[in-house]
Amino acid sequence: MSDSSDPLVPGNPYADTMPVEAQLVQPKRNNVGCIVAVLGVGFFGLLVCAGLLLPAVQAAREAARRMSCSNNIKQIGLALHNYHVAYNQLPPAYTVDEDGNRLHSWRVAILPFMEQQALHQQIDLSKPWDAPENAAVASIVVPAYACPSKVGDPLMTTYVAVVDPSGMFEGAIPTKFGQVSDGLASTILVVETENENEVHWMSPEDIDLETLLERSENDSHVGGGNVLLGDGAVKFITNSIERGLLEALVTKDGGEDYTGL
């Protein structure tokens, strides 16, 4: 039998006088679980997007650094050409004193042609590059000598010459472009070496032909490095380049006819 005092029973005269909350009580919903689920899905989606975008962002940044590196080497090439115009020869790989001791690098010699005349004037060219008289200059970074992809000390450079009697830099003996019978477009002037072969930008040290041919994977760029050809062009060579071709590109008269890399 129905209880007439129950406000929810039809016909109860007191139903209209009862509060709405009392007339119809709705169960409360727990939304915390839904919010946590939505946030979790959203966070997971962000992680997936970040994982997909990160390699692309890194690749874009490296491409920009590689282009900046290429511009550095082009600036070096222009300076070498302007030096040749001024002196009718390239700078020697290194200068020496009267006893044959090495003093300074070709990178020091071309400073006036790289808008670094003031820096060049501060160097005592009669003393070794690491002498106390040159310590202040040796602590200065020349931005064009620092590859933006290289980590570590910015005073150290990976832009080096290949010092070899058959190449463009024979040592203390200057070379002229007219001595290159292979053609400037087929002869290497400067290479970007591996990080393990980096040198101080003032140091009269570079690499020899055998070191160049034993290329490793420890590059500033993935898979290889830039080279400056005698005509001023900058090309990217991979570590998989044929050893014989690379050796021929270094020589002034190797007889190769190769104008593309």
Automatic annotation (TrEMBL):
DUF1559 domain span: 58-151
Membrane-spanning segments: 35-57
Record bears the keyword Transmembrane helix: yes
Entry superkingdom: Bacteria
Keywords: Membrane, Transmembrane, Transmembrane helix
Cross-referenced Pfam families: SBP_bac_10
Name by which UniProt lists this protein: DUF1559 domain-containing protein
Organism for this UniProt entry: Rhodopirellula bahusiensis
